Amino acid sequence: MSVAGSVRAVTTLRLTEMKQRGEKIAMLTTYDYSTAKIVDAAGVDVILVGDSAANVMAGYETTLPITLDMMIYHARSVTRGAKRALVVVDLPFGTYQGNSKVALDSAIRIMKETEADAVKMEGGEEILESVQRILSAGIPVMAHLGLTPQSIHKFGTYNVRAKEEAEAEKLLRDAHLLEEAGCFAVVLEKIPAALAERVTNELKMPTIGIGAGGKVDGQVLVIHDMLGITNDFSPRFLRRYANLHDVMSEAISHYVDDVKNEDFPNEKEQY
Ligand code: KIV
Fold it and tell me: Is 189 a catalytic residue?
Protein backbone atom coordinates (compact mmCIF):
# COMPACT_ATOMS: atom_id res chain seq x y z
CA MET A 1 0.00 0.00 0.00
CA SER A 2 1.17 3.54 -0.67
CA VAL A 3 1.37 6.40 1.78
CA ALA A 4 -2.09 7.42 0.61
CA GLY A 5 -3.39 3.91 1.31
CA SER A 6 -3.82 2.79 -2.32
CA VAL A 7 -2.03 -0.09 -4.04
CA ARG A 8 1.42 0.79 -5.42
CA ALA A 9 1.90 0.83 -9.21
CA VAL A 10 4.15 -2.24 -9.19
CA THR A 11 2.20 -5.26 -7.98
CA THR A 12 3.09 -8.95 -7.73
CA LEU A 13 0.87 -9.53 -10.80
CA ARG A 14 2.81 -6.90 -12.75
CA LEU A 15 6.07 -8.73 -11.97
CA THR A 16 4.59 -11.95 -13.43
CA GLU A 17 3.57 -10.02 -16.55
CA MET A 18 7.08 -8.56 -16.82
CA LYS A 19 8.52 -12.09 -16.83
CA GLN A 20 6.00 -13.16 -19.47
CA ARG A 21 7.00 -10.36 -21.83
CA GLY A 22 10.72 -10.65 -21.07
CA GLU A 23 11.05 -7.29 -19.29
CA LYS A 24 13.78 -7.45 -16.64
CA ILE A 25 12.97 -6.58 -13.03
CA ALA A 26 15.25 -4.12 -11.17
CA MET A 27 15.31 -4.62 -7.40
CA LEU A 28 17.47 -2.81 -4.83
CA THR A 29 17.66 -2.82 -1.04
CA THR A 30 16.73 0.33 0.88
CA TYR A 31 16.41 0.98 4.60
CA ASP A 32 15.34 4.62 5.09
CA TYR A 33 12.86 7.25 3.88
CA SER A 34 15.18 9.67 2.05
CA THR A 35 16.90 6.92 0.05
CA ALA A 36 13.55 5.26 -0.70
CA LYS A 37 12.33 8.48 -2.36
CA ILE A 38 15.40 8.53 -4.65
CA VAL A 39 15.28 4.79 -5.42
CA ASP A 40 11.54 4.89 -6.15
CA ALA A 41 11.78 7.94 -8.42
CA ALA A 42 14.73 6.40 -10.31
CA GLY A 43 12.48 3.58 -11.54
CA VAL A 44 13.43 0.61 -9.36
CA ASP A 45 10.58 -1.94 -9.58
CA VAL A 46 11.01 -3.68 -6.23
CA ILE A 47 12.47 -2.21 -3.04
CA LEU A 48 13.73 -4.85 -0.62
CA VAL A 49 13.96 -3.83 3.01
CA GLY A 50 16.59 -6.51 3.47
CA ASP A 51 17.86 -7.92 6.72
CA SER A 52 21.24 -6.85 5.30
CA ALA A 53 20.29 -3.75 7.33
CA ALA A 54 21.92 -5.76 10.13
CA ASN A 55 25.25 -5.38 8.29
CA VAL A 56 25.14 -2.03 6.52
CA MET A 57 22.95 -0.04 8.92
CA ALA A 58 23.65 -1.63 12.31
CA GLY A 59 27.21 -2.89 11.80
CA TYR A 60 26.64 -6.52 12.76
CA GLU A 61 28.82 -9.17 11.12
CA THR A 62 25.88 -11.43 10.18
CA THR A 63 22.17 -10.85 9.57
CA LEU A 64 21.15 -12.94 12.57
CA PRO A 65 20.94 -10.27 15.31
CA ILE A 66 18.40 -7.97 13.61
CA THR A 67 15.00 -8.08 15.31
CA LEU A 68 11.44 -7.82 14.00
CA ASP A 69 11.09 -4.41 15.68
CA MET A 70 14.23 -3.15 13.91
CA MET A 71 12.95 -4.43 10.54
CA ILE A 72 9.58 -2.77 11.16
CA TYR A 73 11.31 0.56 11.88
CA HIS A 74 13.27 0.36 8.60
CA ALA A 75 10.26 -0.83 6.60
CA ARG A 76 7.99 1.91 7.96
CA SER A 77 10.57 4.53 6.96
CA VAL A 78 10.85 3.07 3.44
CA THR A 79 7.13 2.78 2.74
CA ARG A 80 6.67 6.49 3.53
CA GLY A 81 9.05 7.24 0.66
CA ALA A 82 8.02 4.62 -1.92
CA LYS A 83 5.03 5.45 -4.09
CA ARG A 84 5.57 3.26 -7.16
CA ALA A 85 7.85 0.33 -6.31
CA LEU A 86 6.61 -2.86 -4.66
CA VAL A 87 8.03 -2.94 -1.12
CA VAL A 88 9.15 -6.35 0.18
CA VAL A 89 10.38 -6.83 3.76
CA ASP A 90 12.65 -9.61 5.02
CA LEU A 91 11.32 -11.69 7.89
CA PRO A 92 14.37 -11.73 10.19
CA PHE A 93 16.04 -14.82 11.63
CA GLY A 94 14.03 -16.49 14.39
CA THR A 95 10.64 -15.05 13.41
CA TYR A 96 9.40 -17.82 11.09
CA GLN A 97 11.57 -20.95 11.25
CA GLY A 98 10.05 -23.96 12.96
CA ASN A 99 6.71 -22.52 14.03
CA SER A 100 4.14 -21.47 11.44
CA LYS A 101 1.95 -19.64 13.99
CA VAL A 102 4.92 -17.48 15.04
CA ALA A 103 5.67 -16.98 11.32
CA LEU A 104 2.14 -15.78 10.62
CA ASP A 105 2.20 -13.42 13.63
CA SER A 106 5.53 -11.96 12.40
CA ALA A 107 4.25 -11.44 8.84
CA ILE A 108 1.02 -9.88 10.10
CA ARG A 109 2.99 -7.41 12.24
CA ILE A 110 5.00 -6.38 9.17
CA MET A 111 1.91 -5.91 7.01
CA LYS A 112 -0.09 -4.05 9.70
CA GLU A 113 2.67 -1.83 11.06
CA THR A 114 4.62 -0.94 7.92
CA GLU A 115 2.21 -0.78 4.92
CA ALA A 116 4.64 -2.99 2.98
CA ASP A 117 3.38 -5.14 0.12
CA ALA A 118 5.02 -8.52 0.78
CA VAL A 119 7.49 -10.44 2.93
CA LYS A 120 10.59 -12.43 1.97
CA MET A 121 11.69 -15.68 3.62
CA GLU A 122 14.88 -17.73 3.29
CA GLY A 123 14.69 -21.48 2.72
CA GLY A 124 12.82 -24.28 0.93
CA GLU A 125 10.94 -27.37 2.10
CA GLU A 126 11.99 -26.84 5.71
CA ILE A 127 9.97 -23.59 5.96
CA LEU A 128 7.11 -24.62 3.64
CA GLU A 129 4.49 -24.86 6.41
CA SER A 130 5.27 -21.29 7.50
CA VAL A 131 5.16 -20.06 3.89
CA GLN A 132 1.77 -21.74 3.34
CA ARG A 133 0.28 -20.31 6.54
CA ILE A 134 1.40 -16.77 5.65
CA LEU A 135 0.09 -17.13 2.09
CA SER A 136 -3.24 -18.40 3.44
CA ALA A 137 -3.65 -15.04 5.21
CA GLY A 138 -3.36 -13.25 1.86
CA ILE A 139 0.20 -12.03 2.42
CA PRO A 140 2.42 -12.32 -0.69
CA VAL A 141 5.69 -14.19 -0.12
CA MET A 142 8.97 -13.82 -2.02
CA ALA A 143 11.19 -16.89 -1.57
CA HIS A 144 15.01 -16.90 -1.25
CA LEU A 145 17.20 -19.90 -2.19
CA GLY A 146 20.89 -20.59 -2.71
CA LEU A 147 23.15 -18.66 -0.34
CA THR A 148 20.73 -17.81 2.46
CA PRO A 149 22.72 -15.64 4.90
CA GLN A 150 20.51 -16.48 7.89
CA SER A 151 21.99 -20.03 7.64
CA ILE A 152 25.61 -18.84 7.61
CA HIS A 153 26.47 -20.89 10.70
CA LYS A 154 25.23 -24.04 8.93
CA PHE A 155 27.16 -23.24 5.69
CA GLY A 156 30.29 -21.92 7.47
CA THR A 157 31.19 -19.80 4.42
CA TYR A 158 29.69 -17.21 2.03
CA ASN A 159 30.96 -19.20 -1.00
CA VAL A 160 28.82 -20.11 -4.04
CA ARG A 161 26.06 -22.65 -3.20
CA ALA A 162 24.61 -25.58 -5.16
CA LYS A 163 27.72 -26.40 -7.18
CA GLU A 164 27.25 -30.09 -6.32
CA GLU A 165 24.45 -32.00 -8.04
CA ALA A 166 22.62 -33.03 -4.85
CA GLU A 167 22.33 -29.42 -3.61
CA ALA A 168 21.38 -28.20 -7.10
CA GLU A 169 18.60 -30.84 -7.33
CA LYS A 170 17.30 -29.85 -3.89
CA LEU A 171 17.28 -26.18 -4.92
CA LEU A 172 15.25 -27.02 -8.05
CA ARG A 173 12.79 -29.11 -6.01
CA ASP A 174 12.46 -26.32 -3.42
CA ALA A 175 11.83 -23.73 -6.14
CA HIS A 176 8.99 -25.84 -7.57
CA LEU A 177 7.50 -26.46 -4.11
CA LEU A 178 7.55 -22.73 -3.32
CA GLU A 179 5.95 -21.87 -6.66
CA GLU A 180 3.23 -24.50 -6.14
CA ALA A 181 2.62 -23.09 -2.65
CA GLY A 182 1.94 -19.68 -4.23
CA CYS A 183 5.10 -17.58 -3.79
CA PHE A 184 5.17 -14.73 -6.31
CA ALA A 185 8.95 -14.62 -6.94
CA VAL A 186 12.22 -16.13 -5.75
CA VAL A 187 15.63 -14.60 -5.03
CA LEU A 188 18.51 -16.84 -6.19
CA GLU A 189 21.68 -15.85 -4.36
CA LYS A 190 25.21 -16.88 -5.37
CA ILE A 191 24.53 -20.03 -7.38
CA PRO A 192 26.00 -21.14 -10.73
CA ALA A 193 24.56 -19.17 -13.68
CA ALA A 194 23.56 -22.38 -15.52
CA LEU A 195 21.48 -23.56 -12.55
CA ALA A 196 19.82 -20.14 -12.20
CA GLU A 197 18.94 -20.25 -15.92
CA ARG A 198 17.40 -23.72 -15.53
CA VAL A 199 15.31 -22.60 -12.53
CA THR A 200 14.20 -19.51 -14.47
CA ASN A 201 13.13 -21.58 -17.48
CA GLU A 202 11.25 -24.14 -15.39
CA LEU A 203 9.33 -21.65 -13.24
CA LYS A 204 6.45 -19.33 -14.08
CA MET A 205 7.25 -17.04 -11.13
CA PRO A 206 10.04 -14.47 -11.68
CA THR A 207 13.56 -15.24 -10.47
CA ILE A 208 15.66 -12.37 -9.09
CA GLY A 209 19.39 -13.05 -9.07
CA ILE A 210 22.30 -11.79 -6.99
CA GLY A 211 25.47 -13.48 -8.12
CA ALA A 212 23.37 -15.83 -10.27
CA GLY A 213 24.26 -14.60 -13.78
CA GLY A 214 22.22 -12.80 -16.40
CA LYS A 215 19.71 -15.46 -17.46
CA VAL A 216 17.27 -14.69 -14.65
CA ASP A 217 14.21 -12.43 -14.67
CA GLY A 218 15.70 -9.63 -12.59
CA GLN A 219 18.63 -8.51 -10.47
CA VAL A 220 19.04 -7.29 -6.90
CA LEU A 221 21.98 -5.61 -5.16
CA VAL A 222 22.55 -4.15 -1.72
CA ILE A 223 22.42 -0.37 -2.24
CA HIS A 224 25.44 0.37 -0.01
CA ASP A 225 27.53 -2.00 -2.15
CA MET A 226 26.44 -0.76 -5.59
CA LEU A 227 26.84 2.89 -4.56
CA GLY A 228 30.30 2.15 -3.12
CA ILE A 229 29.45 3.31 0.41
CA THR A 230 30.94 0.01 1.57
CA ASN A 231 34.48 -0.34 0.24
CA ASP A 232 35.55 -3.52 2.02
CA PHE A 233 33.29 -5.96 0.12
CA SER A 234 34.15 -6.86 -3.48
CA PRO A 235 32.61 -10.14 -4.61
CA ARG A 236 32.85 -10.93 -8.35
CA PHE A 237 29.13 -10.32 -8.91
CA LEU A 238 29.18 -6.76 -7.56
CA ARG A 239 29.24 -3.85 -10.00
CA ARG A 240 29.94 -0.50 -8.32
CA TYR A 241 28.00 2.35 -9.93
CA ALA A 242 29.56 5.06 -7.75
CA ASN A 243 32.23 5.56 -5.14
CA LEU A 244 30.22 7.31 -2.46
CA HIS A 245 32.71 6.24 0.20
CA ASP A 246 35.29 8.62 -1.26
CA VAL A 247 32.74 11.31 -2.17
CA MET A 248 31.40 11.32 1.39
CA SER A 249 34.74 11.21 3.14
CA GLU A 250 36.15 14.05 0.99
CA ALA A 251 33.07 16.20 1.63
CA ILE A 252 33.19 15.51 5.37
CA SER A 253 36.94 16.26 5.61
CA HIS A 254 36.31 19.49 3.72
CA TYR A 255 33.59 20.43 6.23
CA VAL A 256 35.87 19.62 9.19
CA ASP A 257 38.62 21.85 7.69
CA ASP A 258 36.14 24.69 7.10
CA VAL A 259 34.89 24.53 10.70
CA LYS A 260 38.42 24.41 12.15
CA ASN A 261 39.58 27.29 9.90
CA GLU A 262 36.46 29.33 10.76
CA ASP A 263 35.60 29.38 7.08
CA PHE A 264 32.14 27.93 7.78
CA PRO A 265 29.72 29.57 8.28
CA ASN A 266 30.51 32.72 6.31
CA GLU A 267 28.56 36.00 6.45
CA LYS A 268 25.93 34.83 3.97
CA GLU A 269 25.35 31.64 5.92
CA GLN A 270 24.13 33.35 9.09
CA TYR A 271 21.15 35.41 10.28
O1 KIV B 1 18.94 -8.82 2.89
C2 KIV B 1 19.26 -8.64 1.71
O3 KIV B 1 19.85 -7.62 1.33
C4 KIV B 1 18.96 -9.71 0.76
C5 KIV B 1 19.48 -9.54 -0.64
C6 KIV B 1 20.93 -9.80 -0.68
C7 KIV B 1 18.74 -10.39 -1.60
O8 KIV B 1 18.34 -10.66 1.09
Answer: yes
- Ligand 1 center to 106 CA (angstroms): 18
> E strands of 50-163, at which residues?
86-90, 118-122, 141-146
Over residues 110-167, the pLDDT tens digits come to 999 999 999 999 999 999 999 999 999 999 999 999 999 999 999 999 999 999 999 9
Cβ neighbours, 10 Å, residue 200 = 23
Give Cα 57 distance to the centre of its chain.
14
For ligand 1, atom 8: residue with the closest CA: 50
Strand partners, 47: 28, 87
Q: Which of 28, 52, 208 to mutate to test the pocket of ligand 1 (most atoms within 8 A of CB)?
A: 52
* Rounded distance from Cα 29 to ligand 1 centre (Å): 7
Task: Extract the residue ranges of the chain whose pLDDT is less than 70.
Answer: 1-6
